[in-house]
Structures are given as C-alpha cells and as structure tokens.
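Running co-folding for adenine.
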Amino acid sequence: MFKVPPLAPQRLQKLLRAMPKAELHIHIEGSLEPELIFALAQRNGVPLPYASVEALRQAYAFTNLQSFLDIYYAGASVLLHEQDFYDMARAYLARAAIDNVAHAEIFFDPQTHTARGVAMETVINGLHRACEDAHAELGISATLILCFLRHLSEESAFEALEQAQPLRDKIVGVGLDSSEVGHPPEKFARVFARCRELGLHLVAHAGEEGPPAYIWSALDVLKVERIDHGVQAVHDAALMQRLAQDRIPLTVCPLSNQKLCVFPDLKDHNLRQLLDAGLCATVHSDDPAYFGGYINENFTQVFAATAMTARHAYQLAFNSFEASFASQADKRVWEHRLKETFERFAEHD
Ligand code: ADE
Ligand code: ZN
C-alpha cells in the first residue's frame, strides 16, 4: 500500500473534498431536495401536506429510521413521469461530480412508485438516461441498484423483479432497504437466490438498527457482496473477524447514523474502530437531502469529530473503488488518480 504522508487538519479537510471517491450508498429518492419536491409537486399537481419548502425542512427532525422513512416516502410521491426520475438523478449526479465522485452506484426503490401506478420502465428509463447523460456531459460513471422494500412481502419483491426483467441490462444489482427491525434478510432468501441466478450483484442493508444476526444472515442466506451500514457488527467479535477476513465492504453513512440517532453524537461514531479492526469500511451519504450533507460533508464532519488521519482518508477512498462493481480497468484508473491527488497534497504541504 502507498505510504500516506501525515497532513495538518485543515489540509486534510481540503484533501477529503478533492480526493476522487466512489458513492456506493445513495438512495436516489433521498437526494430529492425540498425545492425539487415542491417544483415536481406543482408540475404534477400532487398535493403536499406542507405549506412551504421551509415547513417541509422543519419536519426533518428524526428519532429513528421509521420516523425518517415516513417523510421520505411522502416526498417520493411527487415522482410520476420519466422526466421526473431523470431530473432527480441528473440533479444528484451534477452535485456528486462537484464532490469529486468518480463513480456512483445508485439505489432506487421502485415498489414505492409502482404502488402509485407508475410503471417500472418509467422509473428505470428515467434514471438510466440521467446516468448516460451525466457520463457523457460530466465524465461521472453511474449505475443502478434496484432495492426491494423489506417491509413489503416476498411476493411483492418477486413482482418487482418480474417487472424489471425486460430492463435487466439497465441495472447492475439488487439491494434490500426500508424498515429493518422485524424484517430479517431471510424473508427474501428466494428472491435473492433468483437474482443471483440472473447474474445480478447483491447487497443489503443490515446492522443499521438491526442486530448482528441480520448481518450474518445477509451474508450466509442472501449471499450479499456488500453490507449497507453494518455498524452494529462491533457488538459481535466473530462477525468482525468474518467481515475482515472476507473483506466484505461496509458502506457506512455517518450523517445518516447521527440524524437517525444510531449514535448519540458524531464523535461516538465507530467508523474509525471498523477501519482500525481491518474492515473494508467506506463512507457515503445515504439520503443527503434529508441528513444535512452529500458525500464530502460526510467525510469532513466525521473526520473532524473523530480525529481520523490522512491514512484513514486514503484507505476509505481506496476501499470505495475496491468495493464497487466497476471493471478492474476503471478501478485501476481511479486508484491511480487517488494516489496522484495524495502526492500533490503532500508536496505542497
Ligand atoms: N431507505 C432510504 N434510506 C434508508 C436507510 N437509511 N435505511 C433503510 N432504508 C432506507
Ligand atoms: Zn441506505
């Protein structure tokens, strides 16, 4: 591994923003800023239970995951047409490029849209076209991961998969999200087995609020390649060993964990502990429009709160490329750019 020089705190904060990185945990519906929610509500004639952008923002005071999800699904109800999905994803990708995101693997929740009568192809075609345009116009690489809502049934997940099959080439994998506690990974064993047969990459949210047992079953029953969040793993030493040994990536979202009260304060976040235990942790934004910051804000705030070093920064960015589903050739290009950025910062320190 490249020997990372130490940096003064202010210089490190600048480097965190400048370094290339991959965004592997972003729910596209969680990138809907209140202004865009109101603009789309007006465009589509969808009534909102909030009088203004400010009133909506004021409702963003969450006590746990469910208190957030209720507002998040209400916000997503303004999305009706292909152009709406395009506009949302195109806006996100423009914002991500500013944070030096080289590659994004974007989660989307189709069941929350199909339940309102929106066709699967409307959702996927809008998002996919935005990914293609952003690549052509901004140079950012972007792919899509279809997430099943775990509070819904196995039957509903199979129905979503069936609807997505004709658009198989426009998604790189599947995930599992929404209300975690009471909806263990096992509930979706057969759907994930089918997705594996189809050659889709597999990820799942586990150990955000739920117990380490959910991380074990995401790995051993669903056979996922990455765990989203996974911060509860620290309560199980054998699990920590497994995650380290198999280099299973944990896509960690510090500001989300703070806003949903997973940790009492950002200074109590266990990201540094995960890295220092040899796990392949990465940093991401989850639902940036709701949690007060995009990926760079997650990096700078968690580093400031937990006194991590330039070595941690390099490791996190490197891990994000390694953990991605991009080609080996793309990974090597981004990792080379990462090393160059660190060398440039060290020379001018
Ligand atoms: N959907 C959007 N954000 C989520 C989160 N943090 N956990 C589970 N499901 C989600
Ligand atoms: Zn998430």
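Result summary
The first strand starts at residue 21 and ends at 27.
Residues 27, 30, 65, 72, 177-178, 205, 208, 256, 286-287 surround adenine (ligand 1) (CB under 6 Å).
Job closed.
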